[in-house]
Amino acid sequence: RLAANQLETALQAYRQAISLDPASAEAHGRAARVLARLDRAVEAKQSLETALLLDPLHVEANVETARLQAATENWPAARRLLEHAVAADPANRAALYQLLLACRAQQDSA
């Protein structure tokens, strides 16, 4: 597990990448992942929204946004996002696994 200072260093690098290329969905998505690991959910959500505006099929951004939705038990939204991720990359294990969990949770809450 990365220490908080290593995560902050990674976040600075991603923010620098964003300043060099603001249209990089990849940089926004990776920054969001670091922010989520730092328990900065509001900032992570903002970065994810930007990534998805730039590239609606960005797999990592869809998976991370779905994780945030799942944390608040918004299963329909999580499932929709994960379906987008799987459509974009059917072999993505994280997307497939998270989709399975979201489907099960949605089924349990019905």
Describe this entry's structure for a reader.
The protein is mainly α. 80% of the residues lie in helices and 0% in strands. The chain contains six helices and no strands. The protein has helices at residues 4-20, 25-37, 41-54, 59-71, 75-88, 93-109. The longest helix has 17 residues, at 4-20. It is globular, with a radius of gyration of 14 Å. The protein starts with a helix and ends with a helix.
Largest sheet: none
SS field, number of helical segments = 6
- Gyration radius, in Å: 14 Å
* Spatial gap, N to C terminus: 36 Å
| Gross geometry | globular
What secondary-structure arrangement, pairings included, does this model have?
Elements: H1 4-20, H2 25-37, H3 41-54, H4 59-71, H5 75-88, H6 93-109
Helix pairs in contact: 1-2, 2-3, 3-4, 4-5, 4-6, 5-6
